[in-house]
Write a structure and sequence with these properties.
The chain has about 180 residues and is mostly helical. It has a domain of about 120 residues. The chain contains eight helices and no strands. The longest helix has 25 residues.
Length: about 180
């Protein structure tokens, strides 16, 4: 994934966002899901809710020109080709959907994708999109993707904490 993001990155855009997120996702995966899978009943509803918001987020980004403005205004780089932006997102969403299957069927390997979505797609979008107007050159105010990203400020901590939980037979019923 690091190689793909490096190859596709216009300038530093994916190198300073997606690459660190995948490395952090790997650490979180090793500390949690690799050792013990999360409780699907606690994680899956929040994960699927976040994934549904991601589809709306993509629609907002696409219709408001995020793929051209983000690389150019934030990273002083060339814009994404529309087809590259759409393809990258659709391949990612297919992987994120399979992540839901991994949660349900308790398959460890794909949980790395679940962690990446949680850290970059949910928490990263929730934190970074409100900051982009401050980083963008020639722009202040609304930046593409802002409105839907705000939902992640609520969903991100919940999803992260539920993925982070270590489950045992004795404490499963004691959690809120």
């Amino acid at each position: 994934m690091v190689g793909v993001f490096t190859y596709l990155s216009p300038g530093l855009s994916l190198l300073v966002t997606f690459v660190p997120a995948i490395m952090l996702a790997y650490v979180c995966y090793l500390l949690t899901s690799f050792r013990q899978m999360p409780d699907p009943g606690r994680v899956l509803p929040v994960y699927l809710g976040a994934l549904s918001v991601q589809f709306l987020h993509f629609a907002e980004e696409f219709t408001t020109g995020f793929y051209t403005r983000w690389p150019v205004e934030v990273f002083n780089a060339t814009p994404f080709e529309m087809s590259t932006f759409v393809s990258l997102n659709m391949v990612s969403y297919a992987a994120f959907a399979l992540g839901a299957v991994a949660i349900y069927w308790q398959v460890r390997g794909p949980m790395l994708v679940v962690w990446f979505f949680t850290l970059m797609g949910v928490i990263g979008n929730g934190i970074l999109h409100p900051l982009y107007p401050f980083f963008a050159t020639g722009s202040f105010g609304y930046f593409p993707g802002l409105f839907t990203s705000l939902i992640y400020l609520f969903l991100g901590p919940i999803l992260f904490s539920r993925l982070w939980e270590v489950r045992t037979d004795t404490d499963t019923d004691e959690r809120i």
